[in-house]
Design goal:
This protein is an alpha/beta fold and about 375 residues long. It contains 15 helices and 14 strands. Helix 4 packs parallel to helix 5, helix 10 crosses helix 14 and helix 14 crosses helix 15.
Length: about 375
């Protein structure tokens, strides 16, 4: 936990500069945790069918304090503590959704959701199709996903590719406070099951937001990516905490005269290929970043989509993937740091992909 807090503190000042909203509109700082909390509060107040259940979500205010204050405000019937049985409470939540309620099912970590994956896939994702459209399952599965800090192989997996593989699910992966608030509200209002993959290390990070983000009707459309930083030389596509890596790498590349366009996917399924393709047609180069494993990952899917589209002919070099190392997450701190994509991994990849163009850009910058 100490390492997590130190990491958050070290990154906070840099991350505040990552907002793409005009500075004149930035009226407050909002942490990702508070963005999620306010989204839950809005939707509980808006729709009496919405309720939250999970381990420690009520009287303890949530393991990560995302549901802080909601049990006191809405009571036992709307914010429900469950036993430590993911299969049990996920099944209860899916059944409640089939009966017309709108549950928000919190997993303390998505690693624990493996106990409930049968309900997520076979019950929630497939029922609308198997009932010929007669039974909707409006449910949200949310919680921290991917690598945290010092929690080793069984608690550090990224499930973006796992769930995005399954028809019937929508999968979103927020990066900043705007993403977290808008995507969670959209997920709760959606008629279909949505998996919301958050990141533990981002919860305490504050980002500038403008008035529209804190409006009760604000939502981020599922399936639409966001250009975080415009550029003309190379496209960097990432999701969740890897967006931070992409933005930091873009800042380093800018010192060399290379302008990278950074795309925050926001949504993994559906995937906003239109935004990616448009960017690649402009830059003619592409790098993907993800903290998950490389094989059959999100980056691999993006590569395949490019190959199957006319955009492939716009590439001047092969697509390069920056992924987590293809091993279970090590526990040792030094190994853990080297098991995830780092800023210099991305900058080195960009220089290799750009080849001679990178040399010209560096010379021009001097």
């Amino acid at each position: 936990m100490l390492r997590s807090k130190l990491t958050q503190a070290a990154c906070a000042a840099v991350q505040r500069t990552f907002s793409t909203s005009p500075k004149v509109l930035a009226t407050k700082q909002l942490t990702v945790r508070d963005a999620l909390n306010s989204a839950l509060d809005d939707e509980l107040a808006r729709d009496e069918r919405v309720f939250i259940l999970g381990e420690e979500v009520a009287q303890y205010d949530g393991a990560y304090k995302v549901s802080r204050g909601l049990w006191k405000k809405y009571g036992d019937k709307r914010v429900i503590d469950t036993p430590i049985t993911e299969m049990g409470f996920a099944g209860i939540a899916v059944g409640a959704a089939m009966a017309g309620l709108r549950p928000v099912c919190e997993f303390m970590t998505f690693n624990f959701a493996m106990q409930a994956i049968d309900h997520i896939i076979n019950s929630a994702a497939k029922t609308f199709y198997m009932s010929a459209g007669a039974v909707n399952v409006p449910i949200v599965f949310r919680g921290p996903n991917g690598a945290a800090s010092g929690v080793a192989a069984q608690h550090s997996q990224c499930y973006a590719a796992w769930y995005a593989h399954c028809p019937g699910l929508k999968v979103v992966s927020p990066y900043d406070s705007e993403d977290a608030r808008g995507l969670l509200k959209a997920a709760i209002r959606d008629p279909d099951p949505v998996v919301v993959l958050e990141n533990e290390l981002m919860y305490g990070t504050a980002f500038p937001v403008d008035d529209k983000v804190v409006d009760k009707d604000f939502v981020v459309p599922i399936g639409k990516a966001k250009i975080m930083r415009p550029g003309k030389d190379i496209t960097i596509v990432a999701h969740s905490k890897a967006v931070e890596t992409g933005l930091l790498a873009a800042a380093e590349l800018a010192k060399k005269g290379i302008e990278a366009e950074v795309i925050n996917l926001r949504s993994i399924r559906p995937l906003d290929t239109a935004t990616i393709f448009a960017s690649v047609r402009k830059t003619h180069h592409l790098i993907t970043i993800e903290n998950g494993w490389p094989q059959h990952g999100v980056g691999a899917e993006i590569c395949a989509r490019i190959m199957e589209d006319q955009t492939f002919f716009e590439l001047d070099a092969p697509v390069w993937r920056c992924c987590g190392v293809d091993v279970p997450m090590p526990y040792a701190k030094t190994l853990e740091l080297n098991a995830l994509p780092r800023v210099h991994d991305v900058t080195e990849a960009a220089l290799k992909v750009l080849g001679g163009k990178a040399g010209k850009a560096v010379a021009a910058a001097k």
